[in-house]
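Researcher: Here's the sequence for the chain we discussed earlier.
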Amino acid sequence: NAYSRGNYPRAAELAQKSLEMAKKELGPEHEKVAIMEINLAHVLIIVRKIDEAEKILASARKKILKKHGADHNSMLTIHEDQAKIYASKKELDKSRKELDKAIAIITKKSGADDPEIANYLIQQGSIDVALNKPELAQQDYEKALAILEKKYGKNSVGTATTISALGDVEMMKKDFVKAEEYYKTTLKIFDDNLVEDDPVLLNAHARM
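Model: Thanks. This is the structure I predict for it:
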């Protein structure tokens, strides 16, 4: 389909048409309409139609909250995409709070070590970097790394990118010795797990 091929403008057009049809057939308050609104908002964010995406996402949020409450799985996507909307508007503190809400949902259902939480922590780390708050970013990345290492082990590509992010934080703090240690650890993991011409590995070498 258009989305999987990367034709996001066409995907947005098709999603809009499908949504309008669903509203007519099922009614504007139907749960399936809410899911289709979430999908449309997601692709609108990609094509940078932020205001339109925010309006549609708010409509979906209202329906999901009314029918299922704040802990429904669909709220994870809503919080994550609202975080992206806030980030695009440079409202980074609001963006971070949306990710906090997503983390709270997962923690309540699956515990604090669920690997999905790491994804949100990494996003929060990026926000804290943008806010020039390296200490907070370090806490985010360290929490994410602990979760990922518990799930995948210490010598996995899944942990390496977070270790590299910790190196970036040390660069912000002007601690070049610690930064180099993180980058060397990242490079060793990539060397152990990737083929020699892998772009990720080549980029890691270039950074050193």
